[in-house]
Write a structure and sequence with these properties.
Immunoglobulin-like; alpha/beta; 25% strand; 357 residues; globular
């Protein structure tokens, strides 16, 4: 996150925290792969985010997918990407910084990600962070994974992610299922993926379900291996593990969808906004709040921190119809996520603020 910048995204309802919009989880699956549906204004908001992606080799393929999307439509899919960057990269750039780790050891990967966030202080620099396991982290013949899936979940992944979300509420952490093969070794991954899905559904976590994306063909039909487990659709990969050109772009498109929803997009669901609805937006330059009233009436405009605590109430009382601008007192506030909430009669508008001192 950079100094002297405020970014914002409009939410119709809810408060976004590191565990998603309260009362509504974010799930990215095979139905979320058409990035052409994302409004350009939302993509512009995504480009202002600082994102850390920690991965093995499949992550490199996904980044190629981002580059391929950019090559097809530069005006829509332009985003800064840096490989093996240090924390200083985020001080002058926004976009995706990705780092890879060696070996296929889920305990080491979990510990390294935790160290990256805590001891290398990436939590001070990024808005969104996540890491994923590799196909070969799981027990399978001819591969060197030797840790059961439930141990990977209960012993490494879940405690690492839970602790980071608890300790760093201003960072949005994204949970991932494990990627699949199109041939074998999917039994252990299905155990792990079921645990991830159930936990994220029950606890309102943000989930990028790469396994669901890979295990549905181009018509949206589920794909299974010869043993009946979820498997990568062969059309998405060339060697049974790494995504091919089509698969890379498919997953990259889903990641655009992920970032768009974190930025406040509702996934293209039609919203009923009538003539009596107030409007709320933020000025990126000076941090002022603009609101438009459809009629005279009583309004309540308040600012909340990421924990849901009200820290300021710029307006509470009668307001005339038309456009208005107010400034909120940011003195003493730390860099982080805040929310402007406007209530008029039964209508509520919420705008996410990323405040950077």
């Amino acid at each position: 996150m950079k100094h002297g910048r405020i970014t914002a995204a409009i939410l119709i309802s809810g408060i976004l925290t590191s565990s998603g919009i309260l009362g509504a989880r974010i799930l990215i699956d095979h139905t979320c792969t058409d990035a052409s549906r994302i409004p350009l204004s939302v993509l512009d908001s995504v480009r202002q985010l600082d994102i850390l992606f920690y991965h093995r080799f499949i992550g490199d393929s996904i980044m190629v997918g981002f580059e391929d999307l950019y090559g097809e439509n530069p005006s829509r899919y332009d985003i800064d990407i840096a490989y093996e960057m240090n924390i200083g990269w985020f001080s002058g750039n926004s976009g995706i910084g990705h780092k890879s780790f060696g070996g296929y050891y889920p305990d080491v990967k979990s510990a390294n990600f935790d160290e990256l966030m805590r001891e290398q202080h990436f939590t001070d620099a990024v808005d969104i962070a996540f890491f994923k396991f590799s196909v070969r982290d799981f027990i399978c013949k001819d591969w060197w994974g030797d840790i059961p899936a439930d141990t990977i979940w209960h012993g490494f992944y879940k405690p690492t992610m839970d602790a980071l979300e608890h300790d760093f509420p201003d960072v949005t952490f994204v949970w991932w299922t494990a990627p699949l093969s199109d041939r074998w070794g999917n039994d252990e991954k299905e155990i792990f993926n079921s645990l991830v899905r159930d936990y994220c559904a029950d606890n309102q976590r943000i989930l990028f379900d790469i396994a669901d994306i890979e295990s549905h063909d181009t018509l949206g039909q589920p794909v299974h291996d010869v043993e009946g487990f979820e498997a990568m659709f062969p059309g998405y990969g060339d060697d049974g593990i790494l995504p091919n050109d089509y698969g890379q772009k498919l997953i990259a498109s889903a990641m655009w969808w992920l970032f768009a929803q974190i930025a406040g997009w509702n996934g293209g669901v039609t919203e009923e906004v009538n003539a009596n609805s107030p409007e709320l937006r933020l000025d990126h330059e000076d941090g002022s709040i603009h609101y438009t009233m459809p009629a005279d009436g009583h309004i309540n405009l308040a600012i909340y921190d990421a924990a849901g605590r009200m820290i300021s109430k710029p307006v509470c009382g009668f307001s005339t119809s038309g456009s208005h601008r107010v400034y909120w007192n940011k003195q003493g506030l730390n860099t982080g996520v805040y929310f402007a909430r406007l209530r008029f009669e039964q209508e509520i508008r919420v705008s996410k603020i990323i405040y950077l001192r």
